[in-house]
Amino acid sequence: MLILAFDTATDAATCALVWDGEVVGERVSRPVSLLEDVDALFRRAGAAPWGRQEGALDGIVAGTGPGSFTGLRMGLATARSLAFALDVPVAGVSTLAALAAGTPGAVPVIDAKRREVFTLADGEPTVLLPGELALEPGTVCVGDGAVRYRETLEAAGAEVPPDESEAHLPRARFHAALARDFGPAELVEPLYLRVPDAEKALRG
């Protein structure tokens, strides 16, 4: 089974091509480069995403956030467009879940801007101030939010891997591994956790 997975919820967009659980190609860039990266993955793997022949794409996995509102829209729009064009099902995987899967036992912390972070509290996605995270001493925190608020988290007893560590990337290979319930692309919804700035301005 050939799966294309990608996540554009953070500044570092990741994508991967996975064949029966084995990563055959992977890239990290920016959300705006997603389609270029997807094309490069297929070319390098010598696979054709269309048709029913050997090597054709069987499904797409998209990161559902939380994260950048614009990035999430780009990723899900791409997933829906590709799913329609290639007639393949789509599954959604939380960016937080994929980030945590890269470092088992770690707490995922994504920069939510506005001096807040997206993370998990009692297993549920939430948005908090960095100082509000309830952390046991020695807890490992990963993600771009952990990097940005390293000083605050370490003061609370957490451990944060070096800034350049792979642990801070929501690698698409983990999205592919966690994916379940493939179905119509329109059923995959983004996890925003809060109202976008543009909508708040309109309401105001």
List keywords for this structure.
single chain, 204 residues, Nucleotidyltransferase, domain 5, 7 helices, elongated
Structure description:
The chain is of the alpha/beta class and 204 residues long. The chain folds into 2 domains: 123 residues, ATPase, nucleotide binding domain (Nucleotidyltransferase, domain 5, 2-Layer Sandwich), CATH 3.30.420; 71 residues, ATPase, nucleotide binding domain (Nucleotidyltransferase, domain 5), CATH 3.30.420.40. It contains 7 helices and 10 strands. Strands 3-2-1-4-5 form a 5-stranded mixed sheet, with helices on both faces. Helix 3 crosses helix 6. The mean pLDDT is 92.
Helix-strand blueprint:
Layout: E1 2-7, E2 13-19, E3 22-29, H1 34-45, E4 59-63, H2 69-86, E5 90-93, H3 95-102, E6 107-108, E7 110-111, E8 117-121, E9 124-128, E10 141-142, H4 144-148, H5 150-155, H6 172-178, H7 197-203
Parallel strand pairs: 1-4, 4-5, 6-10
Antiparallel strand pairs: 1-2, 2-3, 7-8, 8-9
Helix pairs in contact: 3-6
